[in-house]
Amino acid sequence: MVEHPATAICRIPPDPVQFQVMLGSLLGDGQLVGLPRRRRLRIAHRAERHAYVMWKYERLGPFSAGAPEAREGGLLGFETVSHPMFDDLARLLASRFARHDLIERLLRPLGLAVWLCDVGRLELCASEFLPAQRELALAS
């Protein structure tokens, strides 16, 4: 019996880049939707930020449930597939019980950059990164 790809991806952890894009998005404009054990990440930005939405979509690769599409209010966005990791992140980021000490330990420069881009404090131009900068962005 062949397993459906959407089911199989639940057993695969995101790589360091994917995790930082997810975490930074959740700290920024991203939101978790769905019930426990079926949670997914919803990413949406103004349509003018098309390149940024596509950058996130391309980084998340197989975790993306579908291509970005226009949404209400002039937004462009997409959702990820559901993944058990999102239940862990939901508990970690719960507003009343946020574990700032754990968030600090998990957050790398790339995740911080995504967070700052989401809230409009920074514009991420990945094509301008040098190989050493890409490596540094994921350093612990």
Q: What fold name goes in the CATH topology slot?
A: Endonuclease I-creI
Reported for the largest beta sheet, the result is: 4 strands, antiparallel
**What letter string, H or E per element, gives the SSE order?**
HHEEHEEHHHH
CATH architecture: Roll
Helix content: 40-55%
Secondary-structure blueprint:
Elements: H1 5-8, H2 16-27, E1 31-33, E2 40-46, H3 50-60, E3 69-71, E4 75-79, H4 85-93, H5 100-106, H6 109-118, H7 131-137
Antiparallel strand pairs: 1-2, 2-4, 3-4
Short description:
This protein is of the alpha+beta class. The protein is 43% helix and 13% strand.
What features would you describe in this structure?
The protein is α+β, with helices and mostly antiparallel strands and 140 residues long. It has a single domain, classed as Endonuclease I-creI (Roll), CATH 3.10.28. Helix content is 43%, strand content 13%. The chain contains seven helices and four strands. Strands 1-2-4-3 form a four-stranded antiparallel β-sheet, with helices on one face. Strand 3 and strand 4 (75-79) form a beta hairpin. Helix 2 (16-27) runs parallel beside helix 6 (109-118). The model has no long low-confidence stretch (mean pLDDT 87).
Task: Jot down its keywords.
single chain, alpha+beta, Endonuclease I-creI, 4-stranded antiparallel β-sheet, 140 residues, globular
